[in-house]
């Protein structure tokens, strides 16, 4: 008996929908295909989609945003609790702009001092309370600092405008050779917001151009590429509208970087789904005359794999709801919405559009019934022949490449300081660098210790006695609280500064009845780093469980899912190692950002397993008539071209994140791009087929395919 007879009890020539060996259609997929490809129903689908899309776009509006710098941290974080106490103090209602004056390392002149005094008087018009403290000069008199208090609750646009006026005032009348740089919390807020001004539009534009070019190269048609690009572009616009409405409804802050990531996800995944569906549609057009029947068969066969892929990614993204960092939760929710929309439009709107357009859409390479499928004898068939001849050598070589790349993690460092986060020049960062050269490292942004007013003196003594503290002074008092400004010796966000924060927290905690807490920017970044590590430990196992369960249900096997998940995890470590080596040795980045390992893992495992889903589901389909060995090699041959195109496209789209100004997004884009290429060109092409050929029918254990008489 053949494997098909074992599982279905039918002959080799009988299925629900057509001849065996062509496909193993699903009833649900066939029914959906009949609806979206019908002569009139396809037009109705397109009309409904157009109305729905227009309604969402018109009602979308702006997403909910937050200006609270600690909004991403959990309420239990010590730096967040300090921020809440600071709001009870006069200074806690302020977000100062620090104006730094210098003369290239030379002492400031009397004319410089006069200009600084004049600026202090002019800045009073912008300052809260109408007063600016006297300038503070560095010990070497080579730099001076003016602190301009601004309201902490200013919206982003007002902060940008205020900082621009401060910069214009400081530059006006400045003596030759002197410089003035506006930094501090307000300066940094203005610069990071301004750096995204138009950046997401550039990201979207470059993404569309990259996708269009790759689709043109893939299809070699003057107009076929327009259909999937239009569908995916509409899905992206709808996604942005839905995310905006959802964020306002549940008060979920969405920042520009989240929007950029979701745009890339929708375009990358949506185009991948389109490539797979169109490839299967073209394959079926070579078998049947009726294009509507071809679309029905395509959805019956490819639809479950696309749906399983989208489900895997959506569920994986939703595991971020267990994260404590608000930015991660926002990416999880927004990304899941985007993938759901992309899959829906890919499985409903795209088939309807293709059915309406007809075969001529593929001109000049129009597929006709009876034509041979060139993929079965193309380059990927020859690659399969190599795997079949020497599977163990291919397996060993592939694992060696992945292990070698993973060695790049040997010197990895986690966490970027504020000055290391920009890829573009920012005056606020330059100002912090100037301050660091002439003042103690932590002067620009002191750490804050807040405790009970009755314990002021012992608390101050404990702070001053802490190793790594350059200076400490009582900054404010109320009837209940005392706030101590602490200047650290170490560079902000360095390992030494984090060690000092930990030591401070231990020492002030030992002061009786002080109930003291340590906060500030460095403490907040330490809490963010600790939260990111916690999220990595919690979310990663959940993602693996989700992906494994989906694969088990889809493939009805235990061995194949374990193999696929293991290979994707190996790809992740290889991509992370290669990326870290590139960042530290070529691009001169200081470290991996705290959020990069988790997001890269999520995207690589969830998106990377897509290609293995496409490969394995087709291999399982072919194995029913050809056996495991030939089924896997046939799957490699017929899916090789489309999966390679999809992988290259997804890698290119993620690389486009480098258009945005943050190192974090550049690192994420490069790591995911490298991982997708590794998964597409090495893991899916060589490693997984080599494993399947080596283990044979046991690859499908415990399903009936594992008990077939042939491999």
Structural features, described:
Residues 1-10 have a biased composition (Polar residues). Keywords: Cell membrane, Membrane, Transmembrane, Transmembrane helix. This is MMPL family transporter. With 711 residues, this protein is α+β, with helices and mostly antiparallel strands. Helices cover 62% and strands 6% of the residues. The chain has helices at residues 3-8, 27-37, 41-60, 78-86, 110-123, 156-171, 184-195, 199-219, 226-250, 256-285, 291-318, 326-357, 379-389, 391-406, 427-438, 456-464, 495-509, 521-555, 559-585, 596-655, 663-695, and strands at 97-102, 136-137, 143-148, 179-183, 447-452, 469-477, 481-488, 517-519. The chain has a 4-stranded antiparallel beta sheet with strand order 2-3-1-4, sandwiched between helices. The chain has a 4-stranded antiparallel beta sheet with strand order 6-7-5-8, sandwiched between helices. A hairpin with a 3-residue loop joins strand 6 (469-477) and strand 7 (481-488). The longest helix is centred in the C-terminal third of the chain and has 60 residues, at 596-655. Mean pLDDT is 85; it is low at 1-25.
């Amino acid at each position: 008996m053949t494997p098909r007879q074992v599982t279905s009890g039918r002959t080799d020539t009988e299925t629900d929908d057509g001849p065996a060996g062509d496909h193993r259609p699903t009833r649900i997929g066939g029914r959906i295909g009949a609806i979206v490809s019908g002569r009139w129903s396809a037009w109705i689908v397109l009309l409904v989609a157009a109305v729905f899309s227009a309604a969402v776009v018109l009602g979308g509006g702006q997403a909910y945003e937050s200006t609270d710098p600690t909004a991403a941290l959990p309420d239990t974080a010590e730096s967040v609790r300090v921020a809440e106490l600071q709001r009870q103090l006069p200074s806690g209602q302020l977000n100062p702009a620090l104006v730094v004056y210098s003369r290239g390392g030379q002492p400031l002149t009397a004319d410089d001092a006069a200009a600084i005094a004049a600026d202090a008087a002019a800045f009073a018009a912008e300052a809260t309370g109408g007063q600016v403290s006297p300038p503070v000069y560095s010990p070497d008199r080579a730099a001076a600092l003016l602190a301009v208090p601004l309201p902490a609750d200013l919206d982003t646009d007002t902060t940008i405008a205020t900082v621009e006026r401060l910069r214009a005032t400081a530059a006006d009348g400045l003596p030759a050779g002197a410089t003035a740089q506006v930094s501090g919390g307000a300066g940094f807020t203005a610069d990071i917001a301004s750096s995204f001004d138009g950046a997401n539009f550039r990201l979207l534009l470059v993404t569309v151009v990259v996708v269009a070019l790759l689709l043109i190269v893939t299809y070699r048609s003057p107009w076929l590429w327009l259909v999937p690009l239009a569908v995916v572009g509409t899905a992206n616009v709808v996604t942005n509208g839905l995310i905006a409405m959802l964020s306002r409804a549940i008060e979920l802050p969405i920042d520009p970087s989240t929007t950029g990531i979701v745009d890339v996800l929708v375009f990358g995944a949506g185009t991948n789904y389109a490539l797979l569906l169109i490839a299967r549609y073209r394959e079926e057009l070579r078998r049947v005359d009726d294009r509507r029947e071809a679309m029905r068969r395509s959805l019956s066969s490819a639809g479950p794999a696309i749906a399983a892929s989208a489900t895997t990614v959506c569920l994986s993204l939703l595991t971020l709801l267990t994260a404590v960092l608000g930015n991660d939760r926002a990416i999880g929710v927004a990304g899941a919405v985007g993938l759901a929309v992309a899959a829906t439009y890919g499985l409903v709107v795209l088939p309807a559009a293709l059915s309406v357009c007809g075969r001529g859409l593929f001109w000049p390479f129009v597929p006709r019934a009876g034509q041979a499928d060139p993929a079965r004898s193309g380059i990927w068939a020859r690659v399969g022949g190599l795997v079949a001849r020497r599977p163990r050598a291919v397996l060993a070589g592939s694992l060696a490449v992945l292990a070698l790349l993973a060695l790049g993690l040997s010197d990895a460092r986690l966490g970027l300081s504020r000055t290391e986060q920009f890829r573009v020049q920012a005056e606020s960062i330059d100002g912090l660098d100037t301050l660091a050269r002439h003042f103690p490292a932590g002067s620009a942004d002191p750490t804050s210790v807040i405790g009970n007013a009755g314990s002021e003196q012992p608390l101050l003594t404990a702070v001053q006695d802490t190793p790594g503290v350059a200076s400490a002074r009582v900054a404010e008092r109320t009837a209940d609280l005392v706030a101590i400004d602490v200047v650290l010796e170490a560079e902000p966000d360095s390992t030494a500064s984090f060690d000092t924060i930990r030591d401070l927290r231990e020492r002030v905690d030992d002061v009786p009845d002080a109930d003291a807490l340590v906060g500030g920017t460095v403490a907040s970044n330490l809490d963010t780093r600790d939260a990111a590590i916690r999220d990595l430990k919690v979310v990663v196992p959940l993602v693996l469980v989700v992906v494994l369960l989906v694969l088990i249900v889809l493939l009805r096997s235990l061995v194949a899912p374990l193999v696929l998940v293991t290979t994707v995890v190996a790809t992740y470590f290889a991509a992370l190692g290669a990326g870290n080596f590139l960042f530290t040795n070529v691009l001169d980045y200081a470290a991996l950002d705290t959020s990069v390992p988790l997001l890269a893992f999520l995207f690589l495992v969830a998106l990377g397993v897509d290609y293995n889903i496409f490969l394995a589901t087709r291999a399982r389909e072919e194995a029913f008539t050809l056996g495991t060995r030939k089924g896997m090699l046939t799957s490699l041959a017929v899916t090789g071209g489309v999966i390679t195109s999809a992988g290259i496209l997804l890698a290119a789209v993620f690389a486009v994140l480098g258009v945005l100004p943050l190192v974090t997004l550049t690192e994420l884009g490069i790591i995911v791009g490298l991982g997708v290429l590794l998964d597409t060109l090495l893991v899916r092409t060589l490693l997984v087929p080599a494993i399947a050929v080596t283990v044979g029918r046991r690859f499908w254990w415990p399903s009936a395919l594992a008990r077939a008489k042939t491999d």
